[in-house]
Specification:
Elements (H helix, E strand, L loop, with lengths): L1 H23 L4 E3 L7 E3 L2 E3 L1 H13 L5 E3 L2 H9 L5 E5 L3 H4 L2 E3 L4 E10 L16 E5 L3 H13 L3 E5 L2 H9 L5 E5 H11 L4 E17 L5 H16 L2 H7 L4 E2 L4
Parallel strand pairs: 1-4, 1-5, 8-9, 8-10
Antiparallel strand pairs: 2-3, 5-11, 6-11, 7-10, 7-11, 7-12
Length: 253
């Protein structure tokens, strides 16, 4: 009798084990206050990228809890393997050493903001030679600005702990320009009610991704996330999500 019970329990345990990966699978995410791409609303991670993640996870039938944290802490938790992924991210070679990257989610651009009394129409990096330029960092944006500095040489970088601080400095003339994501810049100007700053032009186009910690995330689950995203993209679902935010989905790579 005891052996029969043990045998039945063994069968049930085997069945549960086979069924559990899909049922128990979970991907955890950190993001930051990076409006309009990600932000917290009523205690919930919100914005276009959070909505895309929820759509993909819903299709996969897995739980995907998200938190909005200061960016340094958000990254640190992913690096330490406490959290699976983070967004939004621009791709760079250093990050690719320890992160799996999703397909690109959306298209955006970096550029320079200046005060209205500056006639600059940005067309080439030499246009900001001699400038003191504010930028949020450490960040991919700051890394891009450092490459510009290496090219033009005569450029001073004023790094700030967030985008809002950089735009406050620009509004009162403490820096001559701010290098920022275009959409983030417009959002910051609106939030701060700054009316004497304008966008002077695009420096480069870029795409935003989700990054998954290689050391703490099952590659099969990352691949399933990517495949599900691609399927929804081909169906036009991703485009519809982003359209509600007046943003453009990136083309599949």
């Amino acid at each position: 009798m005891g052996r029969r019970i043990v045998a039945r329990l063994s069968v049930l345990l085997s069945l549960w084990t086979l069924a559990s990966p899909a049922a128990a699978a979970q991907l955890t995410f950190n993001t930051q206050d990076f409006a309009p791409f990600s932000y917290e609303a009523k205690g919930v991670a919100s914005g276009p990228m959070a909505d895309v993640v929820r759509k993909v996870c819903g299709e996969m039938k897995i739980e995907c809890p998200m938190r909005v944290l200061p960016w340094r802490r958000a990254q640190q938790e992913v690096e330490e393997g406490k959290i699976n992924g983070m967004f939004p991210l621009g791709w760079n070679a250093e990050r690719a050493k320890w992160l799996y990257f999703s397909p690109p989610l959306l298209e955006t651009e970096y550029g320079f903001f200046v005060r209205d009394d500056n006639p600059l129409t940005f067309k080439q990096n030499a246009d900001v030679k001699g400038y003191v330029v504010g930028v949020f960092g450490p960040s991919n944006t700051a890394t891009a600005l450092q490459k510009i500095k290496a090219e033009v040489q005569d450029l001073t970088i004023d790094m700030t702990p967030d985008d809002l601080a950089a735009f406050r400095k620009l509004a009162i003339g403490r820096v001559q320009a701010v290098f920022s994501n275009r959409d983030v810049g417009f959002e910051a100007l609106q939030r701060l009610n700054i009316t004497n700053v304008r966008y002077s032009g695009r420096q480069q186009s870029l795409k935003y991704y989700i990054g998954f910690a290689q050391k703490s995330t099952d590659k099969k689950l990352v691949d399933e996330f990517a495949a599900t995203f691609r399927s929804l993209h081909k169906q036009g679902v991703i485009q519809q999500v982003l359209k509600t935010y007046k943003m453009d989905a990136a083309e599949l790579e």
